[in-house]
Design goal:
Number of domains: 3
Mean pLDDT: 97
Distance between the termini: 72 Å
CATH architecture of the largest domain: 3-Layer(aba) Sandwich
Largest sheet: 7 strands, mixed
CATH class of the largest domain: Alpha Beta
CATH topology of the largest domain: Rossmann fold
Strand order of the largest sheet: 12-11-13-14-16-15-22
Length: 671
């Protein structure tokens, strides 16, 4: 059984093996077009899992596309959430929605997020994306089925690299302990992950023996042989011996597209138009898919998104957006490059040891050894295992090493929070943690990968020091300081997207001491229009207001100051609060006293900066009785969303235009 009319019990359609093969081929084609239209995504894994997807959604799993919450349906959990396009296409081909809708993949306001969200798409059973969690969800669903006397099966799709996450094995134990023979695990064994071969990054084999030792039944099949896939699934569905069952599916990453097959570089990459056409041609689909119509649907939707964003964005006398004028031009560079540059430059210190967590090239931590292979002995690949790696870093630090680890900010500061708190901070160990791809700049990956809460945790930990640099140059300075001049737990947070470079090599940077930035003129180059002064050396210039910003919001605050000067002749004091802990309290009090208006700007949930600043103002005896007006710019108690990075800056209302609008609002109160 598979697709069922839940009202009548009749089978909607039965698919033969040949029909499943054909549908899998078309799914691969739609996948290539959707990824190209999105401009980002995961080609390799979505192609490797597609034969399994076709079999599962069209023939094996009991489901009703017209009644997505039918109680007797089988549940399918995609723990490997980055393969979301495969999930979306499985549902589309099963009839949950039109296939062309998947062309809205990874776009702002679209239900088809970079990682699946069950509240947005009918048929999606769980919101996933943080690897290693799906099997635990599946255990809970399977337990509920047992408790409720239901006969449904729960499937959980995982990756082989994902088996490096310790939570997987906790769930494996639980499933065996509770005799969940209604649970079927599926492992996409394509042998590759972001940093290379799974066996080289962190070997997980022999998986068959491991699962068996935990009390599971195990099948191993060719994940591209449709007959074997169907036979394996049908056997698994009949399993009632009190043991959970896992199917290890041997697959090829990028299956069906020759230049993508077995290439780790295609893990998190989307095809260009030429690559898409070449892939479709190899699949025999170039003339069989309405490619132009599909791409047009994506483009039309994107135009509507841009209109909506533009309609809500604050308007001024002219367009002040980055590089929209003949003057005030700015260079864009990813802040993460500063992190890698510092490791490359300072890595000769034998105490420094870098721990890779599977996105090493993306966050530039691998620059530590790229140009100096002799350092490779001090490079420790830990795989997708943030919790263990953090505690291991504490052990390294205890023995005199200077460990550096990093990954997405949401995984570097949240997934392993207890390990940071207890193993690192409580022992006051010299561990440098990089919260990479912080804020909304990670863009299309969506909410699961956008660190919008990490600074609450990091700034709240005793002994922890926190730097949030504003650009690539300042990131290098902050990293170097933490590496060579500071002892204790350290967290540095930086962005993924190219952001404005607004400092120079000679711009002051003193840990724990803020900088004050002042607009002095209009210049050809944006950075030359401003002067940066160490806050402790600054003299009051009777500005109208103060903007306190950190990270990528510093350039936005500078642009807001430019808008306010051009539109109203207002003078703005900008504080670059690059060190959030310990924060420079004196400059906050001084600026509140001298300007009377304080606006905070953070690419984070409002509070990591705003609440700390407010606490300092309200508890300062110097400010008792003085009328201090405050406002905050930041994310307003919501999860992230898929979309282009600069679209999200507008959508989350953290651009310079929103800062300027807040300034206008508060100036009306002041007057």
């Amino acid at each position: 059984m598979a697709l069922i009319d839940s009202k009548t019990g009749n089978i909607i359609r039965e698919y033969s093996i040949d029909e499943l093969k054909e549908n899998a081929r078309f799914m691969r084609g739609y996948n290539l077009v959707a990824l190209h239209a999105a401009g980002s995504g995961h080609s390799g894994g979505t192609l490797s899992i597609m034969d399994i997807t076709a079999a599962l959604y069209l023939r094996i799993a009991n489901a009703d596309p017209n009644n997505a919450l039918w109680e007797e349906r089988d549940r399918i959990i995609w723990s490997t959430g980055h393969k979301a396009p495969s999930l979306y296409l499985g549902l589309a081909f099963a009839g949950y929605y039109p296939r062309e809708d998947v062309m809205l993949l990874r776009k702002l306001y679209s239900p088809f997020q970079g990682h699946p969200h069950w509240l947005k798409v009918a048929g999606v059973e769980a919101s996933t994306g943080s690897l290693g969690q799906g099997l635990s969800i599946a255990v809970g669903i399977a337990l509920a089925g047992k408790l409720n006397g239901k006969n449904y099966k729960t499937f959980c799709i995982m990756g082989d690299g994902e088996q490096q996450e310790g939570q997987i094995w906790e769930a494996v134990m639980e499933a065996s302990h509770y005799q969940l023979d209604n649970l079927i695990g599926i492992v996409d064994c394509n042998r590759l992950q972001i940093d290379g071969l799974v066996k080289d990054v962190m070997n997980v084999e022999p998986l068959e023996e491991k699962y068996k030792s935990f009390g599971w039944n195990v099948l191993r099949i060719d994940g591209h042989d449709m007959q074997r896939i169907v036979d394996g699934f049908e056997k698994a569905k009949k399993n009632t011996d009190g043991k959970p069952l896992v199917i290890l599916c041997d697959t090829i990453k990028g299956k069906g597209v020759s230049f993508m097959e077995d290439v780790a570089g295609w893990h998190g990459k989307s095809p260009s138009y030429e690559e898409m056409i070449k892939g479709l041609t190899e699949l025999g689909l170039n003339e069989k898919l309405p490619v132009n119509d599909l791409l047009e649907k994506s483009k039309t939707y994107q135009k509507d998104v841009e209109k909506k964003l533009e309609a809500k964005h604050p308007k001024f006398g002219k367009n002040y957006w980055w590089n929209s004028e003949a003057t005030m031009k700015v260079k864009m560079e990813p802040t993460r490059k500063g992190f890698g540059n510092s490791l490359a430059e300072n890595g000769d210190d034998e105490r420094i040891v870098c721990l890779g967590l599977d996105i090493s090239g993306s966050i530039t931590i691998s620059d530590f050894y790229t140009s100096k292979p002799e350092r490779k002995k001090r490079w420790l690949s830990m795989g997708i295992a943030e919790q263990s790696a953090t505690a291991a870093a504490a052990g390294l630090a205890k023995e005199g090493k200077i460990p550096v680890l990093g990954t997405y900010g949401t995984f570097a500061a949240a997934r392993n929070l207890d390990q940071i708190r207890t193993s690192v901070c409580y022992g006051n160990f010299d561990v440098l943690i990089a919260g990479a791809h912080g804020g909304v700049s990670v863009g299309p990956d969506g909410a699961t990968h956008q660190a919008l809460e990490d600074l609450f945790a990091m700034c709240g930990l005793p002994n922890m020091s926190v730097i949030v640099p504003c650009d690539a140059i300042e990131t290098k300075k902050g990293t170097t300081y933490f590496l060579l001049k500071h002892f204790g737990p350290e967290y540095i947070r930086f962005a993924r997207e190219a952001t404005p470079v607004v400092t120079k090599e000679n711009t002051p940077f003193v840990f724990g001491k803020a900088n004050i930035i002042r607009l002095r003129k209009e210049a050809d180059n944006f950075v030359d229009a401003f002067e940066t002064i160490l806050a402790s050396e600054y003299k009051n210039e009777l500005e109208h207001l103060t903007i306190i910003a950190s990270g990528p919001m510093v350039p936005e605050a500078m642009r807001a100051a430019y808008i306010l000067k051009k539109e109203f002749e207002w003078e703005t004091r900008i504080i670059n609060m690059h060190t959030l802990k310990p924060i420079d309290e004196s400059v906050i009090v001084q600026s509140a006293k001298e300007t009377g208006i304080i606006i905070t700007a953070e690419e984070h949930q409002i509070g990591a900066l705003a609440w700390r600043v407010s606490e300092i103002i309200t508890s300062s005896k110097e400010l008792y009785g003085l009328p201090i007006i405050t406002g905050a710019i930041g994310v307003k108690d919501r999860f992230g969303d898929s979309g282009a990075p600069w679209e999200l800056v507008k959508e989350f209302e953290v651009s310079a235009e929103y800062i300027a609008a807040k300034a206008i609002e508060l100036m009306k109160v002041k007057k």
